[in-house]
């Protein structure tokens, strides 16, 4: 378990690009005549490269192959791909291969690595038409922004949703108030109406943000590390709501390092009617023989949606690519509606393409539809390096609250104080 829809506006094929149409001696410009200039084709694109190289995640190449084939046929550019583990190896390998000139033109990484990649100068800002951006959900595009600039296009999303055992619960409740009443009646002995890992900030964020808290203030796509809203009035109310569930309805066994496996065990043994978990858990539940139902999270008591954290996998152009315009054209193409749909068919990765949310392929897949809908309310995990300082202090605060050892305001004040100190220590202002 871990933290953790595109309409492509086609350009006309390049025409009349003159490459090697005469002896090199005759084509050679006068000394310094074209220094600093870039040759541009009729439609504003540079000449086509012979080849582009893409790094794809492991066991995902099957979804990239049909998109590559269509791109090659359309533009006449050879595309090669290599499978490289996405979470850490692509970033680490690009640090070496990029400067050496042996790296790719396009990589794929989780969006929360974007800030570090930009800071290190490993990926570049991209420029795309508004029609391309409008293809995707706003939150998935927000995840590709850093300091107000766009650094990629999204290919897949994941976010926690509401999962229930159809044998124990007829349908998903619309509100958390309904779920609370159900749980009060259902919870007895070793049976629980609802479980969530709210001592883990990844999951607790949905409640805290839904009540008005926030990690870093978002100023038009730029996150302000100095404006932390994790102990404001809304964050305190959200944490008080979390405390209520632990005090009245949650078992003590789902707190701490082993909480996830304990919660999974209770659900897979038919002892919990419902849980908050992500799409990564679906298969294990089905393998355990549970007939699961999946829905977006019920609305909070204040009428707001649970604003879960969202993880977004994206495509990005290497800062070392010699063909950034065509690399950008490639990621526009492989994320368009047709190719996003094909990727879902082949990998079950859920595309944040708006037009696909109601497509029968996704609409008839209960889990995929729930994730697609919930992702519209979700907030991308902050992708600035300072986010690394948030997880530990917030986990400490939430576990103190869950164990009834501290009141929410006190615990959150201390967490924010620690976060700010760690940011100043480990990420000194430039």
Automatic annotation (TrEMBL):
Listed Basic and acidic residues bias regions: 25-40
Record flagged with keyword ATP-binding: no
Entry's localization field: Cell membrane
Gene Ontology CC entries for this record: ATP-binding cassette (ABC) transporter complex, substrate-binding subunit-containing
GO MF terms held by the record: carbohydrate transmembrane transporter activity; maltose binding
Domain of life, source organism: Bacteria
Keywords carried by this UniProt record: Cell membrane, Lipoprotein, Membrane, Signal, Sugar transport, Transport
Region (Disordered): 21-48
GO biological process, one term: maltose transport
Family annotation (Gene3D superfamilies): Periplasmic binding protein-like II (3.40.190.10)
InterPro entries: Maltose/Cyclodextrin-bd (IPR006060), SBP (IPR006059)
Topological category with respect to the lipid bilayer: Lipid-anchor
Signal peptide as annotated in the record: 1-19
UniProt family annotation: Belongs to the bacterial solute-binding protein 1 family.
Protein name (Swiss-Prot/TrEMBL): Maltodextrin-binding protein
Biological source species: Anoxybacillus tengchongensis
Lineage: Bacteria, Bacillati, Bacillota, Bacilli, Bacillales
């Amino acid at each position: 378990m871990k933290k953790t829809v595109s309409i492509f506006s086609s350009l006309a094929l390049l025409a009349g690009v003159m490459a090697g149409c005469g002896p090199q001696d005759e084509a050679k410009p006068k000394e310094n005549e074209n220094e600093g200039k870039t040759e541009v084709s009729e439609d504003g694109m540079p000449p086509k490269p012979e080849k582009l190289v893409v790094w794809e995640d492991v066991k995902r190449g099957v979804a990239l192959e049909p998109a590559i084939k269509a791109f090659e046929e359309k533009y006449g550019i050879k595309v090669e791909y290599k499978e490289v583990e996405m979470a850490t190896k692509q970033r680490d390998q690009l640090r070496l291969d990029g400067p050496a000139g042996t790296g790719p033109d396009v990589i794929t990484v989780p969006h929360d690595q974007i800030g570090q990649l930009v800071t290190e100068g490993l990926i570049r800002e991209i420029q795309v038409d508004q029609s391309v951006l409008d293809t995707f959900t706003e939150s998935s595009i927000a995840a590709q922004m850093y300091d107000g600039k766009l650094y990629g296009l999204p290919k897949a999303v994941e976010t926690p949703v509401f999962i229930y055992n159809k044998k124990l619960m007829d349908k998903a409740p619309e509100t958390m108030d309904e779920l609370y009443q159900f749980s009060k009646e259902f919870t007895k002995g070793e049976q629980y109406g609802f479980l969530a890992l709210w001592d883990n900030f990844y999951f607790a964020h949905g409640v805290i943000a839904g009540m008005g808290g926030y990690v870093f203030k978002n100023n038009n796509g730029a996150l302000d590390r100095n404006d932390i809203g994790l102990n404001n009035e809304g964050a305190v109310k959200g944490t008080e709501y979390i405390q209520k569930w632990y005090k009245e309805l949650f078992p003590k066994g789902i707190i701490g390092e082993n909480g996830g496996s304990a919660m999974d065990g209770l659900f897979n043994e038919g002892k919990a009617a419902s849980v908050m978990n992500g799409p990564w858990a679906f298969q294990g539940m089905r393998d355990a023989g549970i007939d699961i139902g999946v829905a977006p999270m019920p609305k909070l008591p204040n009428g707001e949606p649970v604003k879960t954290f969202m993880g977004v996998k994206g495509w990005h152009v290497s800062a070392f690519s010699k063909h950034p315009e065509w690399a950008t054209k490639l990621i526009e193409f492989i994320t368009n509606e047709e190719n996003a749909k094909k990727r879902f068919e082949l990998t079950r990765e859920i595309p944040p393409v708006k037009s696909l949310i109601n497509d029968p392929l996704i609409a008839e897949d209960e889990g995929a539809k729930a994730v697609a809908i919930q992702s519209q309310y979700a907030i991308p995990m902050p992708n600035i390096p300072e986010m690394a300082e948030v997880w530990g202090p917030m986990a400490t605060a939430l576990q103190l609250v869950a164990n009834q050892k501290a009141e929410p305001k006190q615990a959150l004040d201390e967490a924010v104080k620690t976060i700010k100190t760690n940011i100043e220590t480990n990420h000194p202002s430039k």
